Amino acid sequence: GDPKNAPPPLVRLTGRSLVSAIWKGEGSLVDELLQSIEHHVDEDVLTDLKDKIRLHDPSDSEDIEGDIRNSLLWLRDELRTLSCTYKCRHDAAADLIHMYAYTKCFFRARVSKSFLSFSQS
Question: What are 89-108's pLDDT values in tens digits?
């Protein structure tokens, strides 16, 4: 079609899509974090952390963006209480979570149909 009518390549995340991408969806930031630390902490510590994460779920909030920030800041502080080893730096993960907490706009790439482009020589 006409490229002037094409949708933008990025979609801003808000509301439930933001919660899904950051906090509780499959492949979310928190899901990826838990997967990466599960081999470096005791099972009871991981279970406790998962329970606390569920308690800080911002899904039903009136101010989702503000509560995601608060939940991420809580998670940052929680990660800083975990012991670091030479193989697992929870403090570095906490620093990254801090950056996510203060990110103002989250986006995802818009899925578009693929096409082939032929160059003419």
Answer: 999 999 999 999 999 999 99
Please, how many CA atoms are within 13 Å of residue 66, restricted to the half-sphere of its CB? 3
Give the chain as a 3 state SS string.
CCHHHCCCCEEECCHHHHHHHHHHCCCCHHHHHHHHHCCCCCHHHHHHHHHHHHHCCCCCCCCHHHHHHHHHHHHHHHHHCCCCCCCCCHHHHHHHHHHHHCCCCCEEECCCCCCCCCCCC
Please compute, for residue 34, the number of CA atoms within 13 A of its CA located in the half-sphere on the CB side: 22
pLDDT value at 87 more than 90: no
Contact, 8 vs 112, CB < 8 A? no
Q: What is the mean pLDDT of residues 6-26?
A: 91
φ/ψ of 102, rounded to 5, equals: -100, 15
Question: Could you tell me how many residues make up the chain?
Answer: 121
Question: How many alpha carbons fall within 13 Å on the CB side of residue 48?
Answer: 9
